[in-house]
Specification:
Layout: E1 16-21, E2 27-31, E3 36-40, E4 46-50, E5 55-61, E6 67-71, E7 76-80, E8 86-90, E9 98-103, E10 109-113, E11 120-125, E12 128-132, E13 147-151, E14 157-161, E15 166-170, E16 176-180, E17 188-193, E18 199-203, E19 208-212, E20 218-222, E21 230-235, E22 241-245, E23 250-254
Antiparallel strand pairs: 1-2, 2-3, 3-4, 5-6, 6-7, 7-8, 9-10, 10-11, 11-12, 13-14, 14-15, 15-16, 17-18, 18-19, 19-20, 21-22, 22-23
Length: 255
């Protein structure tokens, strides 16, 4: 109906982000400035769990209910159980910046890694980290490396290559196919898998959100407010697309 209810977090200036749906109506989120992970029940009951410094602003949840997060401060990927026990899995080389994470059906976790001079597409399974370097992973400044990741219903992995202005798809056999975005320096902010091996995305610098099929057909939509900044994106069970306008303080629903 459009009614918005807000809930005050116990920790001020915690910078909540990366909210993900857990079981029993519970939602989980990262508090990157407070070094915590939080949960909120459908009745508004909030719990917070300290996880140490460096928790990134994105989370993934596997089928067991464990939460996964990037931990650049420790050059690691972190895992937290629903009761707050934290385990870290270290990279074999230095200077990794894991950012967006997503759980695959086999409970492996895929993630985008900014890196410092080259970005990688990463995967952690049974505690082992593997990384893959696409052809356009290098870059400079704000368009460095790899960003955004989504696992489609067919098991393929989608990710953005910002400096090359591409969205790419890695098949289950490891073949990478790249699709050019229609406008320069699009800065893909979010990738979300659809229900037909497709993916939705937002482009924060161009006020655009869009859709790409598994065959590479791309459709763009412009948010209503110029300069609104298309940011977070979600799909509901009815197939509606929800987009946050970061600078306009609004949420857009496309039916």
């Amino acid at each position: 109906t459009g009614a918005i209810t807000e809930f005050q977090l116990p920790t001020t200036h915690s910078f909540p982000a990366g909210i993900r749906a857990g079981s029993n109506g519970e939602l989980w989120f990262a508090e990157s400035l407070a070094n915590k992970i939080g949960s909120i029940s459908e009745h508004g009951m909030i719990k917070e769990y300290p996880v140490g410094p460096g928790v990134a602003g994105e989370l993934a949840i596997d089928s067991t209910g464990d939460l996964w997060f990037g931990n650049a401060r420790n050059n690691a990927i972190g895992r937290m159980t629903p009761v707050g026990k934290v385990t870290r899995f270290s990279f074999h080389s230095p200077k990794h910046i894991p950012r967006q994470l997503v759980a695959a059906p086999d409970d492996s976790i895929w993630f985008s890694d900014y890196g410092y001079d080259i970005g990688t597409l990463g995967r952690i399974s049974r505690g082992k980290i593997s990384e893959y370097v696409p052809g356009h992973a290098r870059g400079e400044g704000e368009y460095l490396g790899i960003d955004g990741v989504a696992v489609a219903t067919d098991g393929s992995v989608w990710f953005a290559e910002p400096n090359a202005n591409l969205i790419a798809r890695r098949s289950t056999s490891g073949t990478i196919t790249e699709y050019a975005l229609p406008t320069p320096k699009s800065r893909v902010v979010e990738l979300v898998a659809g229900s037909h091996d497709d993916v939705w995305f937002t482009m924060g610098d161009n006020d655009i959100f869009g859709h790409v099929t598994s065959q590479g057909k791309m459709t763009d939509y412009t948010i209503p407010d110029a300069g609104g900044g298309a940011s977070g994106l979600a799909l509901d069970p009815e197939g509606n697309v929800w987009v946050a306008e970061y600078f306009a303080d609004k949420i857009v629903k496309m039916q």
